[in-house]
Design brief:
Chain lengths: ~120, ~110
């Protein structure tokens, strides 16, 4: 399977703990995006990378959130001191840089539950 | 700021019938892209159809077509000959030209009745 993969698929943690998610994009895609989706809602943009450079961060991405993409390949999203409000599906997507469409291909997501 | 609104939380259609999902958006830009994404239950999101704002012709992909009304900032999705596999949550999304992020609507859950 050469699609976008995300690990773990599910994560249950206690409030105050740190969690880290991983996203592996489609190999030839140099753009990588993170979104958060709460139940019954549309995804909300968090941040995106072009290669290893983080080009944009949403105001939703508080200081407790950090994302990295070392060497422009896989990406990690870390949430420190988790809160119950962080419970959501975290989606990763990747796209080629080429205009005009930059079609984004989504992964299956990581569902986070904070107890 | 750009916003996308889907005013129909749920829709249902009889198998083989036609259904239209509504979407409106707000932007001051003249060039942008619009998309419809499908998210089946417990499965990943996939692109259904896209429309470039500078094109007057409505996009079509097999049984899926859009009605793009730029002046009205409306972008509806028509699904013809509905199939059971069309049951999913559908999201309308907007992207500015040369920007990365997608801005999504709240979604419409489509039920297809046999």
């Amino acid at each position: 399977d050469t699609g976008v993969s995300q690990n773990p698929r599910h994560k249950i943690t206690k409030r105050g703990q740190n969690v880290t998610f991983r996203c592996d994009p489609i190999s030839e895609h140099n753009r990588l995006y993170w979104y958060r989706q709460t139940l019954g809602q549309g995804p909300e943009f968090l941040t995106y990378f072009q290669n290893e450079a983080q080009l944009e961060k949403s105001r939703l991405l508080s200081d407790r959130f950090s994302a990295e993409r070392p060497k422009g390949s896989f990406s990690t999203l870390e949430i420190q001191r988790t809160e119950q409000g962080d419970s959501a599906m975290y989606l990763c997507a990747s796209s080629p840089r080429s205009e005009p469409y930059n079609e984004q291909f989504f992964g299956p997501g990581t569902r986070l539950t904070v107890l | 700021a750009q916003t996308v609104t889907q005013s129909q939380p749920e829709m249902s259609v009889q198998e083989a019938e036609t259904v239209t999902l509504s979407c409106t958006y707000d932007t001051s830009e003249s060039d942008y892209y619009l998309f419809w994404y499908k998210q089946p239950p417990s499965r990943q999101m996939i692109l259904v159809i896209r429309q470039e704002a500078y094109k007057q012709q409505n996009a079509t992909e097999n049984r899926f077509s859009v009605n793009f009304q730029k002046a009205a900032k409306s972008f509806s999705l028509k699904i013809s000959d509905s199939q059971l596999g069309d049951a999913a949550m559908y999201f309308c999304a907007y992207r500015r030209l040369k920007e990365g992020k997608l801005i999504f609507g709240q979604g419409t859950t489509l039920q297809v009745k046999p």
